[in-house]
Amino acid sequence: MHAAASQSLPDCDKMLHMTSRRRFLGTAAAGGISAASPAFSARSANRYDEIETRVTRRDFKNLHKEDLPTPCMVVDLEIFEKNLRTMADHCRSSGIHLRGHVKVHKSPDIAKRQLALGSIGVTCATVAECELMSHAGISGVLLTRQPTSKNNIGRAIALAKRDPTFATVVDDPLTADWLQEAAAREGMKLRVAVDVFAGLTRHGIEAGEPAVELAKKVNASKNLKLIGLMGYSGGASHTHGWDARKKKSEQDLAGLMESVALARKAGLPVEIVTGGSTGTYNIDSETKGLTELQAGSFVFMDTLYRHVGGKQDQAVYTDFGSALTVMTTVISKRHPRQCTIDAGNKALLRPTDEVKGRPEVKVENQGAEYGILAWTDSDRDFKLGERVDLYPSNLDMSTNVYDRYYIARGEQIVDVWPIMGRAGAAQR
Ligand SMILES: Cc1ncc(COP(=O)(O)O)c(C=O)c1O
To answer: Would the CB of 144 count as within 6 Å of ligand 1?
Structure first.
């Protein structure tokens, strides 16, 4: 506290301030934390503007996790890189391509790293994500939600004009008509895949004849180029137990496979059959129907995915490591067996989040900026000011509320990657 500020305190407040400060220093010394307390840290890069300037300059020398403002997202680079390699190796050895979904990370840095390891492009949930990725220099962008508004159709066409590798899906003949009309006006050809129902009622044309009829329509449209079919089984991706997941995935994709066979029989060009997820990556590649996977979450993993179980371990899905944490700080500790952290609703804290290294601790939300960690059967406590790392529950939602990933090797920050297109106009 500045001297001027302490002078302006009323007398009784001044005394309280002095005694509580004395008490604080005494407690700190007794607890042996004075040297390591946040205010007395030997490493000094902790002023907001200094960190921002250094991030802009990409100067991360002596910038450590303890210097960062919280709550913030931190990526463990070693685990992240291993996840990318595991998926790339799997795809290579099983003869399937990866066109990973970016909705979970919204980071061109991550997409580029995947492309460098052999990915053939990226899949995106919105036109805005497609624009973001394409403008960042990524080719092979596939929009997995058909554009139906004047705005979205216009942007899809404009994107395809500047990047002929861009493609979109359609699940309705009307959309095919609209896209044909818009592409004809611009005198260009748009790449289109037919989105076939695969268990989620939110999208996909009925499998079999309706899907093939739509594929024929696209193929016959002068300004559209049929590239193949898509089927996304979102229900299978989080089915618990590998065997149950396999069964569900095969059931959900049966209609897609039938449609692919019919389309090929009808002489239609089916260059790609796209679908799949982190949960089914080694199921879909075994079943041998998809030509490419849209898996996204494996880059970081989240707690919902960790509990679906894997082929080796039915209880925990260990194929990919938990590379992303939300770092928080303990800001109050006035009640037994609980403490308060500085992440709440605004940070999308959820009861299904987990504390790194303390799986028994319960996570509760207590307002916009507050969260509670509570425990019953452990004598390990958290300290005031301690940094607590949480594994988020759902990447799509959580990454959307942070602006950057701090990339860490151990405690050292080595890079910062922006999370882009998250809110407002950038997201629409
Ligand atoms: C159409 C589509 N494909 C692929 C994925 C990626 O799945 P995951 O993040 O589970 O790997 C999603 C995720 O919701 C999706 O909506």
So the answer is: yes
Domain containing 293 equals: 78-306
From the CB of 325, is ligand 1 less than 6 Å away? no
Q: Are residues 211 and 287 in the same domain?
A: yes
Model pTM above 0.85:
yes
CA–CA distance, 76 with 410 (Å, rounded to integer): 7
How confident is the model at residue 43, as a pLDDT? 54
Q: What is the per-residue burial (b if ≥16 Cβ within 10 Å, else e) of 180-200?
A: bebbbeeeebbbbbbbbbbbe
Number of domains in the chain: 2
Tokens found for residue 87: 């998926």
Q: Residue 375 is part of a domain; what is its CATH number?
A: 2.40.37.20
Question: pLDDT value at position 421?
Answer: 87
pLDDT at residue number 251: 97
Does residue 288 share a domain with residue 143?
A: yes
Cβ neighbourhood burial of 378 (10 Å; 0-12, 13-18, 19+)? exposed
User: pLDDT of 205-255, one tens digit each?
Assistant: 999 999 999 999 999 999 999 999 999 999 999 999 999 999 999 999 999
- Interval between CA 228 and ligand 1 midpoint (Å): 18
- Is the CB of residue 305 below 6 angstroms from any atom belonging to ligand 1? no
- Residues 89 and 145 occupy one common structural domain: yes
**Token pair of 314 as six digits:** 């039915």
Pocket test for ligand 1, best of 83, 99, 103, 197 (most atoms within 8 A of CB): 103
Ligand 1 centre distance from Cα of residue 282 (Å): 15
pLDDT-flagged residues of the chain (< 50):
1-36, 40, 42
The alpha carbon of 294 and the centre of ligand 1 are apart by a number of angstroms equal to 6
- In the reported structure, the alpha carbon of residue 107 is separated from the centroid of ligand 1 by a whole-number distance in angstroms of 15
The CB of 175 under 6 Å from ligand 1? The reply is: no
Selection from 285, 296, 299 nearest residue 253 by Cα: 285
The CATH number for 185's domain is: 3.20.20.10
Q: What pLDDT is recorded for position 8?
A: 35
Compute, in angstroms, the gap from residue 214 CA to the centroid of ligand 1: 23
Residue 193 sits in the same domain as residue 341:
no
Q: Provide the β-strand partners of residue 418.
A: 404
Q: How far is the CA of 292 from the centre of ligand 1 (A)?
A: 13
Residues 149 and 179 in one domain: yes
* Domain co-membership, 197 together with 270: yes
